[in-house]
Every structure is written in structure tokens, then in C-alpha cells.
Specification:
The chain is an alpha+beta fold. It has one domain: Arc Repressor Mutant, subunit A. The protein contains 5 helices and 3 strands. The longest helix has 14 residues. The two termini are 26 Å apart. The relative contact order is 0.15.
Amino acid sequence: MKKKNVLDIQKLEKAASRLRAMAHPMRIAMIELLTENKRLTVTEIYERLGIEQAAASHHLNILKSKGLLESKRDGKMIHYSVRVQALSTVIECINQCSVE
């Protein structure tokens, strides 16, 4: 007897949470900026995007808390980068969902 696909609610909730985090236009811009530049400080991010520091930190923390970004402290500076594997997994999932 074949085992039917069973929804793993925890995985579904995690995926939905990541997608909600990514759905904001500013967060999409941040991911794009970090994808192009590999590693940037908060200052570099908010200056390039033309937003306030507090807003940049808020959005970066959301993306980091969902496992899409990582940060490394270097003295007083914090550098952010994309967690490529996490982002690739989300994109792969989206691509599979669009297949009929």
C-alpha cells in the first residue's frame, strides 16, 4: 500500500512564515541588494535603499529571524549576508508550486 503524502504542519507553517517575511517590497529589495553585493553593513543597506536606519534594522531582523539572512559582528559593525541555501530552498519550492 502506498503511503499518501501527509502535510507536515510545522513545515507548512515555517514555509508560510518565510514567505510572509519575504513578501514585503523593502525586504525583497534588501535580499536583492545582498544577493548582488554578498555582504553589507546596516549603514550600507539603509543608505543604498534610501531608508531610515531603524527601518532597515527592523526589516533585517525579520529576515534574519526567519533564517533567510545571517549576520556577523566585526567590532561595532554588523555585516549581513543572504543564507543562500535557505533562499534557494524557498525559490525551489515556489518553482515547484508553479508547475502544473
